[in-house]
Amino acid sequence: MASPLAVLTGNRDFRRLLSAELVMFGADWFVMVPLLVLLPELTGSGVWGALVLAADTGIHALMLPFTGTLADRFDRRRILILANLAAVVAVLLLLGVRSSGTAWLALAAVAALAVAKSCYSPAAQAALPNVVSAEELPSANVFAGSAWGTMAIVGASLGGLVSAAVGPYTCFWIAAGALLVAAGFTVTIRRPMQAPRDSAEPALRTLAAIRETLVYIGRRPQVLALVTAKSAVGLGNGVLTLFPLLAGVYGVGAIGTGLLFAVRGAGAVVGPLLMRPVLNRRRWLLTALAASMSVYGLSYTGIALISWFPLVLALVFLAHLGGGSNWVLSNFALQAVVPDRLRGRVFAADLMLATLAISVSQLVVAAVIDTVDIRVILAGCGLVTVTYAIGWWLVTRRLPLAVAPAETR
């Protein structure tokens, strides 16, 4: 297996794909943190922030069955570029959010950004095995699995700091420029991002393609287990809505909100790095996935019981170390077993389930955020994840521990 450093320095196309992903994810959080701080200031309520997060994940989830089909049918490079450009337009819409009467523009902009991301994510994940060799894939997954977390650190922390220094609208302009840079990185990738298609094979209509994917997943218990693994963390993800309010409780404002999102990202970076040995010992996979879910849930349950902000930051880091581990383990296993012609759709189904779980969690939190103590909400979200982890492990523990070989790619 090639080392991570060798893959990063030796594979130009992977380096540019990774750079584009880093910019896309960083720009997302660079605008989200200032927006989550801005909306309560303009409206006097935490509901708008919860609705923005729910719209982001909910629309993302609903679009994924269709955008996953696009990733298997059309040129993935073009999809990535167009998604970047659409995200630029969405971010610029946020410049119109100036009062409680224009808060709805935040929902429209975030909805448009969610559509762009729903096109981007399946195409990027499905393209990864095509821009690296089989030997490079495990190490490439370490970087790819850390990309979101890395830029959650950079984007969230810088978003909080820049917003506190010069205001949220400067953040929106910077993010729009960064997304244009990401499109430029993708343009320069030379390797094809999907395997050649048999011209004699008819292109399935969208609903038929979705049906084929569901049948494929349903007939393979290990694939079904893997595409439901991320939902544990998703069902507890409503806690993110509480970050601005939690920062307010401790009197740390926008900078504290940025720190909470930043240590969340740091955990998501470290988790994939720690899980690299597991990628070569696939018999540990299902147990490691169940453990990662439990770490997330127990950490947030612990946050509900403490009152020292540095320890809150430490437990948020630990929670998302578990969440990041969960993400990279399930992604790598799916890339190993799913054939190229179905990979975009299977990853779309995987992301759809995860983001629907996140949306449900955030909508529930939005319904109670102004009436229930935030510590009760934190504990509830954590315990939901722990309960899911136990049930998931009981159902999957008898599955074969070795991942099946991939079908023809």
What does the model show?
With 409 residues, the protein is mostly helical. The chain has one domain: Growth Hormone, Chain: A. The chain has 17 helices and no strands. The chain has helices spanning 4-10, 12-43, 47-73, 76-93, 104-131, 137-166, 168-187, 206-218, 221-227, 231-235, 243-249, 253-274, 276-279, 285-303, 309-337, 340-368, 374-396. The chain is globular and about 55 Å long. It starts with a helix and ends in a 13-residue tail after the last helix.
Topology:
Elements: H1 4-10, H2 12-43, H3 47-73, H4 76-93, H5 104-131, H6 137-166, H7 168-187, H8 206-218, H9 221-227, H10 231-235, H11 243-249, H12 253-274, H13 276-279, H14 285-303, H15 309-337, H16 340-368, H17 374-396
Provide the domain count: 1
Number of strands: 0
Q: How does the major sheet shape up? A: none
Estimate the mean pLDDT confidence: 82
Category from helices, strands and their pairing? mainly alpha
CATH superfamily descriptor: MFS general substrate transporter like domains
CATH-defined architecture: Up-down Bundle
CATH class: Mainly Alpha
| CATH level-3 fold name | Growth Hormone, Chain: A
Spans where pLDDT lies below 50 across 5 or more residues: 199-204, 401-409
The termini sit apart by 20 Å
